[in-house]
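TA notes, week 10

Several of you asked for a full example with nothing omitted. So below is the full record: structure tokens for the whole chain, then the designed sequence directly under it. When grading your own attempts, check the secondary structure regions first.
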């Protein structure tokens, strides 16, 4: 019989996290959680000290999305915990698992105006699937198991655990600690057979079918089953931004470049893990055909029929359901292939070709100064086959989505469902660790606008401290959407800048590469395509943290669009 020993709460917490399969902890330590950070490492959890809790929370949730297992975000009480709320909302809205753990005051100091006192369980509640404080050191593992299970089962999301300082500091007897069995991976639910048959029937009778692949499909790991479905039946498919690569962008059935036309004219849509929210224009006219039939595949039953009534609602796990469909179809003696000679395919191909031409016109525009298109053209020419792209900043993100090919699933992280700017450096740090530990052939590229870089710029120090081989490219137009020219900036500064400087302006003399150099990384500033190409070759050849400050025309923008983004007006 093993001897009874005393174990402090910090150790119990970290051991429980490890037992439940948590691999990474991102955070910023301070009273009373310094011991937790230290114990995390002693228990074999990888601890990454960040510079802002919000970025730490973004990093932890990116791990949740990439691995389907939650990482922890560790913070001090009060301000530290509250800084995380933006991160928790972002995780919840994107349906990504994350566990936020914050220290709080000693239990008997509650309601006394204690240092950094805050009702954190209540603060987290609107933005988390589960928010609780263990009621004893002995029961910490019970709460950790419940937190991990709740974060990952059903629609994934954020959870919160509150850790009073006396629980962290004090000890319990080892034979009194309740260790639950680690939560098994989430159940992969099937849909009912009748609905599977109906879905196949509706889809195979469509005149203008379309498959929309959402990031729920990427999270489900459904790439092989969806690929088999598309390869067999040759239906056009459209990935949402973070679902790019579930089926490679260069697949002949990808109609990403004909997005508006595909959405507008499809008569049947198979919706695989995407919500009919603002990103898909609520599924409504004039962006969609008003009579469109939707076959919805979704893990959260309450999401069914949201904004658009689905003709068939398949509730369960995407990978499992697509396999069910593949299995049902395999029983038919005749193989169904959607003909590439249909007027639907012709119309989509025509739009893809027109789009390629107008993109090429932008690429061919005279430079310097560069625009987004010719800068991205230079970059995409040189990138390796397998890269994980973090992309944010309005135009930088949107235009890169159309120009950067994703060949593999879960290789794009961006502002996502919540349109959150400032996620970039946290995502990049998590992504680089994931590449290092799980996919060494993948290169991390972080492409940001200069405004987006500013939200968490000090995380460059984190990148350099952990020596992460991140290639950052700041697409610098001196502003938010409409940037400052040197002349307009100078004349605005002549009077009172608070009255004269446009709210969209940022400094045109910013040398972001120097931030990277200040912490030991490598930096370049480029203004021409040739300069960008040379810098990029050098950056790709080194494993050091790198930053290219890529100056583009301050008034560069998107090419003409069929619809205004974010509105349904033509
Ligand atoms: P996108 O941003 O790509 O449009 P959304 O985040 O709007 O995607 O939607 C993703 C959807 O996928 C969510 O409604 C989520 O509940 C669902 N989902 C997540 N994991 C799974 C899964 N394994 N099986 C089915 N649906 C899933």
């Amino acid at each position: 019989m093993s001897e009874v020993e005393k174990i402090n709460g910090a150790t119990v917490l970290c051991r429980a996290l490890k037992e439940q399969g948590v691999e990474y902890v991102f955070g910023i330590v301070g009273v009373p959680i310094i011991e937790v950070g230290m114990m995390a490492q002693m228990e074999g959890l990888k601890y990454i000290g960040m510079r802002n809790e919000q970025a730490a929370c973004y990093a932890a949730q990116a791990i949740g999305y990439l691995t389907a297992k939650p990482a922890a975000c560790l913070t001090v009480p009060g301000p530290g915990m509250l800084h995380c709320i933006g991160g928790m909302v972002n995780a919840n809205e994107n349906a990504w698992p994350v566990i936020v753990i914050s220290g709080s005051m000693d239990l008997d100091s509650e309601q006394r105006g204690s240092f950094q006192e805050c009702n954190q369980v209540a603060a987290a509640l609107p933005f988390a699937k589960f928010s609780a404080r263990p009621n004893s050191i002995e029961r910490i593992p019970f709460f950790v198991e419940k937190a991990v299970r709740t974060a990952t089962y059903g629609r994934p999301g954020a959870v919160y655990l509150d850790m009073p300082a006396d629980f962290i500091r004090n000890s319990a007897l080892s034979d009194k600690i309740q260790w639950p069995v680690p939560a098994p991976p989430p159940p992969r639910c099937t849909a009912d057979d009748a609905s599977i048959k109906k879905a196949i029937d509706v889809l195979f009778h469509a005149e203008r079918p379309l498959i929309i692949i959402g990031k729920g499909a990427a999270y489900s790991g459904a790439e092989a089953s969806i690929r088999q479905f598309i390869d067999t039946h040759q239906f056009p498919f459209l990935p949402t931004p973070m679902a790019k690569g579930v089926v490679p962008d260069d697949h002949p059935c990808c109609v990403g470049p004909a997005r508006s036309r595909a959405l507008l004219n499809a008569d049947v849509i198979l919706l695989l893990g995407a919500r009919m929210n603002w990103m898909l224009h609520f599924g409504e006219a004039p962006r969609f055909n008003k009579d469109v039939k939707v076959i919805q595949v979704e893990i959260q039953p309450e999401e069914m029929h949201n904004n658009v009534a689905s003709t068939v609602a398949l509730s369960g796990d995407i990978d499992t359901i697509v396999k069910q469909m593949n299995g049902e179809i395999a029983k038919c003696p005749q193989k169904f292939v959607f003909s590439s000679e249909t007027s639907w395919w012709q119309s989509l191909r025509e739009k893809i070709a027109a789009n390629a031409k107008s993109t090429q016109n932008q690429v061919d525009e005279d430079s310097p100064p560069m625009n987004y298109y010719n800068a991205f053209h230079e970059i995409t020419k040189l990138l390796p086959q397998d890269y994980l792209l973090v992309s944010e900043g309005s135009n930088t993100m949107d235009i890169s989505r159309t120009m950067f090919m994703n060949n593999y699933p879960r290789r794009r992280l961006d502002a996502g469902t919540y349109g959150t700017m400032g996620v970039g450096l946290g995502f990049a740090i998590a992504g680089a660790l994931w590449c290092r530990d799980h996919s060494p052939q993948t290169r991390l590229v972080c492409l940001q606008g200069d405004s987006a870089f500013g939200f968490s710029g000090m995380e460059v120090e984190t990148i350099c401290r952990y020596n992460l081989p991140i290639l950052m490219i700041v697409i610098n137009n001196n502003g938010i959407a409409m940037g400052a020219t040197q002349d307009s900036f100078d004349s605005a500064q002549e009077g009172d800048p608070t009255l004269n400087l446009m709210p969209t302006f940022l400094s045109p003399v910013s040398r972001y590469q120097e931030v990277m150099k200040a912490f030991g990384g490598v930096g370049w500033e480029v203004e021409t395509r040739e300069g960008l190409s040379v810098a990029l070759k050098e950056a790709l050849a080194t494993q050091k943290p790198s930053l290219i400050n890529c100056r583009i025309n301050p008034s560069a923008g998107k090419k003409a669009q069929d619809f205004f983004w974010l509105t349904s007006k033509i």
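The pocket of adenosine-5'-diphosphate is lined by residues 94-95, 155, 214-216, 219-220, 240, 242-243, 273-275, 277, 279, 298-300, 303, 317-318, 417 (CB under 6 Å). Use that as a sanity check on your answer.
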